[in-house]
Amino acid sequence: MTKIDLSVDKGRRKNAIKRAQERNIVIPTFAQMMEPSKIPAAVKTELKSVGLWDLHPRNLFRITWHNEPKSSGGAFGSVNYLELPSSLTGVPARIIVLVGKWFPTGAHKVGAAFGCLVPRLVTGQFDPTTQKAVWPSTGNYCRGGAYDSALLACESIAILPEGMSKERFEWLSKIAGETIKTPGSESNVKEIFDKCKELRASGQDLMIFNQFEEFGNYLWHYAVTGHAMEEVLKQVIGRHGRYRGMASATGSAGTIASGDYMKQLFPDSKIAASEALQCPTLLENGFGSHRIEGIGDKHVPWIHNTKNTDLVVAIDDNAVVNLARLFNEENGRQYLVERSVPEATVSQLDLLGFSGISNVLSAIKLAKYYEMDENDIVFTVLTDSMDLYRSRLHEMHVEHGEYGSTDAAGDFARHLHGQSTDNMLELRYPDRRRVHNLKYYTWVEQQGKTYPEIQDMWTRTDYWTEVQEQVDEIDRLIVEFNDEAGVLR
Ligand SMILES: Cc1ncc(COP(=O)(O)O)c(C=O)c1O
């Protein structure tokens, strides 16, 4: 199956519609997530009394980059973004980050989960009255999946490695029906797949929404995150600005799909895929464990459009954890102000979670590699914020002691302004094929994809555009579903 399967099961769909009626559920369309001006006024009125993270079905409409940045009653505005000044990044290029903190759950992965679940729900392929939704993840995706499941009245099972941050488990224990811890940490994705296999064999009535292979994840970011980037670009580009590219870690390779959208608008732009230096799978088929929570690795996700990836960038996790301290400890922030980073920026640096810091470093390296100037614009994404890693900051404080101004000066010089173009690879055609070929070992050998499928993905020129074009059809199915449920009439 190359495209998202949209074949309808009428009987099961009836069950899903009945459930929506009983639970007052209205499903937003992709078009509404891209442009909240299309959201009905009645929904906006209801949301005035709903908190951002509340388990309220109307919060499905808050699966968008446009949420007003407040914890309760927020309306919709322009896309949440920050432009990082050169005083911070050390490069003249303009680095613009989309901010994920203002999604429900504090991470944009609610969107990826929506993209995987909703096509199955509105077609009747997934029956929320009998089946459980399983969310294999390295952290935020299963939080997003458990959350979306709760809003859509589905039972859920979250799967994530035992080594992930405490905050994730505490929250999941309240939201997910069941949470399964798999052995290892961040990059132990194979263990997550093994658990899925075990669940499948258990005979339980469940559906596994594997973000690493589901094109709904790709499509949500292609359409919704891509559109958000385009919108911000229009706001900031000015007379001399040039969009040059985007950088993103490839946890499941969902977010990086926004680069495909932008490259269709700006064919000369670049897409940089980043990963941890301690687990350099894309760079050199490497493996290892690392501390950039959320970005997994040791495999290439099925939905990574490797043919469209221009560079691979590996980021040292030491840089990431030390910059987390620089950005969040009092002495770190004070040092940044002394180095002329505007206070308005410094006070918002907790919007960067670990992978956000890593993405910013990837964008800096991309800008350095192509010698970009002050007219050049690079985008990246902050999946989540430091809110999900407070315990990690505390652990570092305990382990390493007080963070002083000498630490700050060292980290700033070494890990931020000292970023170089090391551990980068500009991908030639055979390099892209080498990365694609790595998919064989996970997806064909272990996960049931076929030889023709992996060949098709590489050779067919309309492979990815066929998926991209499915947005309208999914929206049509969502509208029909809502009409039949009749909740907003
Ligand atoms: C914190 C964090 N950063 C980055 C990513 C990677 O994003 P993607 O899976 O869209 O490639 C994830 C994915 O779960 C994540 O949780």
Structural class: alpha/beta
Count of extended strands? 11
Distance between the termini: 37 Å
What small molecules does the structure contain?
pyridoxal-5'-phosphate
Task: Tell me roughly what share of residues is in helical segments.
Answer: 40-55%
Instruction: Determine the strand fraction and express it as a percent band.
Output: 5-15%
Overall shape: globular
Outline the low-pLDDT stretches: none
Overall residue-averaged pLDDT value: 96
User: Can you count the helices?
Assistant: 21
The largest sheet, given as strand count, sense and whether it forms a barrel, is: 7 strands, mixed
Radius of gyration (CA) equals 21 Å
Which strand order spans the largest sheet, edge to edge or round the barrel?
Answer: 1-2-10-7-8-9-11
Structure description:
This protein has 489 residues and is α/β, with parallel strands linked by helices. The chain has 21 helices and eleven strands. It has helices at 10-23, 30-34, 41-47, 86-89, 109-123, 140-151, 166-175, 189-201, 215-236, 257-265, 281-284, 317-328, 330-338, 343-346, 354-369, 390-400, 405-416, 429-444, 451-459, 463-468, 471-485; strands at residues 81-84, 94-99, 132-136, 155-161, 178-182, 206-208, 242-249, 270-276, 311-315, 376-382, 424-426. The strands form two sheets. The protein has a seven-stranded mixed sheet with strand order 1-2-10-7-8-9-11, with helices on both faces. The protein has a four-stranded parallel sheet with strand order 5-4-3-6, sandwiched between helices. The radius of gyration is 21 Å and the shape is globular. The two termini are 37 Å apart. The model has no long low-confidence stretch (mean pLDDT 96). The site of pyridoxal-5'-phosphate (PLP) has 20 residues, from helix 5 and helix 6.
